[in-house]
Amino acid sequence: LAKTTQPISMDSYEGQEVNITCSHNNIATNDYITWYQQFPSQGPRFIIQGYKTKVTNEVASLFIPADRKSSTLSLPRVSLSDTAVYYCLVGDIPSNTGKLIFGQGTTLQVKP
Amino acid sequence: ETGVTQSPTHLIKTRGQQVTLRCSSQSGHNTVSWYQQALGQGPQFIFQYYREEENGRGNFPPRFSGLQFPNYSSELNVNALELDDSALYLCASSLDAGARNLPLHFGNGTRLTVT
Question: Is the pLDDT of residue A16 over 80?
Answer without folding.
Answer: yes
